[in-house]
Write a structure and sequence with these properties.
Blueprint (H helix, E strand, L loop, with lengths): L2 E3 L6 E3 L1 E4 L13 H13 L4 E3 L8 H10 L7 E6 L1 E4 L2 E5 L3 H14 L5 E6 L9 H12 L3 E7 L3 H7 L7 E5 L11 H7 L3 E5 L36 H20 L4 H10 L4 E7 L3 H8 L8 H13 L16
Parallel strand pairs: 3-4, 3-12, 4-5, 5-8, 8-9, 9-10, 10-11, 11-12
Antiparallel strand pairs: 1-2, 6-7
């Protein structure tokens, strides 16, 4: 598995990272927890070294399940989690990135993850009601105390990342990036490359759109966030958009087949082909999905294939939203 530097952290990451949003058990439909746990162990065997979670996944379920699955292999991986949501029990009530709260939630995450140090801690979403100084100085304090090795942000735009410079040095930004959503190409990806900030791409398979498993009549369970119809400010799962996207996915699947590959492999290879991307995150519910995704890591798409991919979107009149505003609010 190819290893890449993760921004200015001194850490390295496998090109493919193991995303655990699906391990929330409450936000992505039903999964087999046992299969997911075995996939974690198998992923390490296949060279995946970065595992990404968040306290809001569940909330709290994903961190606990990941800790159990990693077990004694915790020190073999780069462990990433995220804080910044407020709760009333298990109910999310808003955002909170105030100084003391970031420290409190990090302490709780350390306990749930059964570790003494978190390799990379991220602020999950911008808290527009809190000055940037508060979360960044809290993260600096946690780093100096040895409770986190490095820190960064998630879903921040360039202006927000620039604002962090007065208080510390972020190491990474985790934002959605896939064939159906190329908003980050306009500003965020170039800024990260120029400032040695790692770019962690989530949603590499378009939240399922690029798995080849969707038809126009797809339905989502009540406990699946995609049921809302929107994905981070884009109408990806609304009926009219979905019909076109399924046609695109079918044509992309045929292109991949001509190369002896699958659609998920092509979608993931496309994300990884951007030189500013440090790691492409993808959920893996079982070892079958794991093996398919791992095979994408070494595939280098030709210029001709990339052009053919883009032409499919033109032919089907499906936008890639390059010039669309970035979503800065989770609710």
């Amino acid at each position: 598995m190819e290893q890449r530097p993760l921004g200015n952290t001194g850490l390295t990451t496998s090109a493919i990272g193991f995303g655990t949003w699906e391990m929330s058990t409450t936000m992505y439909g039903d999964i087999d927890v046992g299969d997911a746990g075995r996939a974690v162990d198998a992923a390490i065997d296949r060279g995946i070294t970065l595992f990404d979670t968040a306290e809001v996944y569940g909330p709290f379920h994903s961190e606990r399940l990941l800790a159990k699955a990693l077990g004694k292999r915790r020190d073999d991986v780069v462990l990433v989690t995220k804080v910044g949501f407020a709760y009333d029990g298990d109910k999310v009530t808003g955002l909170n990135s105030k100084h003391d709260y970031v420290i409190e939630r990090t302490e709780a995450a350390l306990e749930r993850l059964e570790t003494d140090v978190i390799d990379l801690m991220l602020i999950h979403w911008p808290d527009h009601a809190t000055p940037m100084e508060e979360p960044i100085t809290a993260l600096e304090q946690l780093r100096e105390a040895g409770k986190i090795q490095a820190y960064g942000v998630s879903n921040f735009n360039v202006e927000m990342m620039e604002a962090t410079k007065s208080h510390g040095m972020i190491a990474a930004n985790q934002v959605g990036y896939h064939l159906f959503d190329r908003r980050m190409e306009a500003e965020v990806l170039p800024w990260c490359a120029a400032n040695q900030v790692g770019f962690m791409a989530y949603g590499s398979l378009g939240f399922g759109l690029l798995t080849g498993a969707f038809g126009v009549d797809v339905t989502f369970a009540d406990n699946d966030w995609r049921r809302r119809g929107t994905a981070f400010g884009l109408p990806l799962f609304q009926r009219e958009s979905l019909e076109k996207e399924v046609r695109v996915a079918d044509r992309l699947k045929a292109l991949a087949a001509e190369e002896g590959r699958s659609l998920p492999q092509m979608a993931l290879a496309w994300v990884l082909s951007n030189p500013a991307v440090s790691v492409g995150l993808v959920g893996m519910r079982n070892e079958t999905e794991l093996d398919e995704n791992v095979a994408a890591a070494e595939w280098r798409l030709s210029d001709e294939l990339r052009a053919a991919i883009d032409q499919v979107f033109v032919d089907e009149d499906v936008p890639t939203y390059v010039d669309h505003p970035q979503e800065l609010h989770p609710f």
